[in-house]
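Posting here for the record, re: zinc ion.
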Amino acid sequence: MAADRAVKRKRKGSGSTGQGGEVFLRQRTDPRSERRFEPKASLALGLTMLGMSVAALLAGAGVYGMWFRGEEAGSHPYAPYLLVVAVLLGAAAGLFGQWSMKPLRVGDAGVGIENGPGEIERIGWHDVTRLLLTEAALTVQGSGTAIAIPLRTHLPAASRVLAEARARVPARAADIQEGALPLPDDAAGEVRALEPPQVAGLRCKATDKLIAFEADARLCGRCGELYHKDGVPPNCATCAAPLR
Ligand SMILES: [Zn+2]
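Prediction output follows.
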């Protein structure tokens, strides 16, 4: 069947095509994959849990000392301090603690975060506006959304995100120094196949033509940008990868 024919092909000769002359145009049903990263339990998380537990204990003791010691004893003089310390500790643990224990996905469909069972929020590479690296996290910014990847619990995922962003949408990661994160480890993360994307009803990036049938869709294999089969430009409008 013509529609199932692989579109990927090698282009001979030199010319202005990318590394090795690879053409990145893909059919919607071409195989795609991603890696799933489980968070690493960290010292910070342990301390956060401990801080929360101690805060709860102190709060309990404070409340008891203040109001429940019986008529004759009255409230204990230290009780108000216990309550204040409990509130401060609880607030600090809540504000600065490590709470991102969600698994992450990195691959052909961009960067994803598992918000619940079967519920994955994704930012496609073509939707990434900027990557931001701080001491604590690598943040992937999309239009109107962002995914923060804490380095303490998700360093292997952060390394892979940065490396893939540099290869797929280099301009979006240009602010980040070379060697800022370790190179990705091919053994890290579990490789999973991706379902074909839902594209019917979306529009071609180059011509704005409505994609009424999924068979009419073409994808940039590098950044995931979407095109109608009649409107595929020579180079991807988003990442400049050669498409024809
Ligand atoms: Zn592209």
